[in-house]
């Protein structure tokens, strides 16, 4: 009995480190994630708090709502409205088109190499934006672009004579769709992969048609992911500046371009009004996420 107890104490002494040793190891465990928190605080949290405070201050540093009220200027309201329409149109087109592509490559019975090639291209195209993307669309759909000339020569169809303009609302929306569709494919494919084959087999055994299976099983399961991706695409387009500025310049007055002009040259003659414009963009993005959480909660409650 004595030998056994001694051996137990010896084993316990070897396997259980002292409390002081555990407490000394704690800082090193957080050391790996320290760069993330430092980066988030310096480049996300602090700048956001700074502009939020600046939106409610005047040049004298006094608290005021004048900057928020000034957002009701017709030019600023029009810029917000155009940005919302472009973001909404490009996100919806990109979401539905990307969903169709994702379903085809995951559950369409296509060869595996098509899925690999599509996902590889989507990963690259979703990050193709800015000046290169604007130049590509001008070279393709500009007044002397390749597609414009070919349609006019081969078919006799002049897209500009029928109202299209690459520097217009639909021109910018079409340009955004180029990276919205691949981004949708990259994000939604894992959700479609999560659909188990057993669910389809069980539905078929119970006599459900393919349409009923999709309506009652597939759509409710992927709905939160689809809705979240739509909101992500909306935010992605709403904050885009490089592509829009390189493509349209100042001909299409969206909020990021207005804010960019304010930062560079104080065109509004009120630096704190620029903070208010940025604050408005944060509010719109935040509301989008609130609606996403609300819809997701209702969907999960229905699934339960």
Regarding CATH, which class of the largest domain? Mainly Alpha
Question: Would you identify the CATH H-level superfamily of the largest domain?
Answer: MetI-like
The helical percent reads over 70%
Inertia-based shape: globular
Distance between the ends: 55 Å
Mean pLDDT: 82
Count of the domains: 2
Q: Structural class, please?
A: mainly alpha
What's the alpha carbon Rg, rounded to whole Å?
Answer: 27 Å
How much of the sequence is in beta strands? under 5%
- CATH A-level architecture of the largest domain: Orthogonal Bundle
Instruction: Enumerate how many helices there are, as a single number.
Output: 14
Which spans have pLDDT < 50 for at least 5 consecutive residues? none
| Main sheet overview | none
CATH topology of the largest domain: MetI-like fold
β-strand number = 0
- Helices and strands, in order, run as HHHHHHHHHHHHHH
Description:
This protein is an all-alpha fold and 304 residues long. It folds into two domains: 6-54, no CATH class; 72-300, MetI-like fold (Orthogonal Bundle), CATH 1.10.3720. The chain has 14 helices and no strands. Helix 5 (74-107) runs parallel beside helix 9 (169-193). The mean pLDDT is 82.
């Amino acid at each position: 009995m004595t030998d056994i107890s001694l051996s137990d104490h010896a084993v316990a002494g070897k396997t259980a480190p002292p409390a002081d040793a555990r407490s000394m190891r704690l800082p090193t465990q957080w050391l790996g994630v320290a760069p993330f928190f430092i980066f988030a605080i310096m480049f996300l949290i602090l700048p956001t708090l700074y502009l939020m405070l600046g939106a409610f201050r005047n040049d004298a540093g006094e608290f005021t709502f004048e900057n928020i009220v000034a957002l009701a200027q017709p030019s600023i309201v029009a810029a917000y409205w155009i940005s919302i329409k472009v973001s909404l149109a490009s996100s919806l087109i990109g979401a539905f088109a990307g969903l169709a592509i994702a379903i085809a490559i995951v559950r369409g019975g296509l060869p595996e190499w098509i899925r690999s090639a599509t996902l590889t291209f989507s990963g690259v195209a979703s990050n193709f934006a800015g000046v290169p993307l604007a130049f590509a669309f001008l070279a393709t759909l500009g007044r002397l672009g390749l597609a414009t000339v070919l349609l006019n020569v081969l078919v006799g169809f002049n897209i500009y004579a029928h109202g299209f303009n690459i520097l217009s609302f639909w021109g910018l929306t079409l340009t955004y769709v180029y990276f919205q569709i691949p981004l949708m494919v990259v994000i939604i494919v894992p959700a479609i992969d999560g659909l188990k084959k057993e669910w389809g087999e069980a539905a078929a055994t119970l006599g459900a048609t393919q349409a009923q299976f999709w309506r009652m099983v597939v759509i409710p399961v992927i709905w939160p992911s689809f809705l979240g991706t739509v909101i992500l695409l909306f935010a992605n387009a709403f904050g885009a500046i490089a592509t829009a500025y390189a493509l349209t310049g100042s001909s299409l007055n969206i909020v990021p371009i207005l804010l960019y002009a304010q930062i560079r040259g104080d065109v509004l003659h009120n630096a704190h009004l620029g903070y208010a414009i940025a604050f408005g963009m944060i509010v719109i993005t935040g509301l989008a996420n609130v609606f996403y959480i609300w819809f997701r909660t209702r969907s999960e409650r229905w699934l339960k």
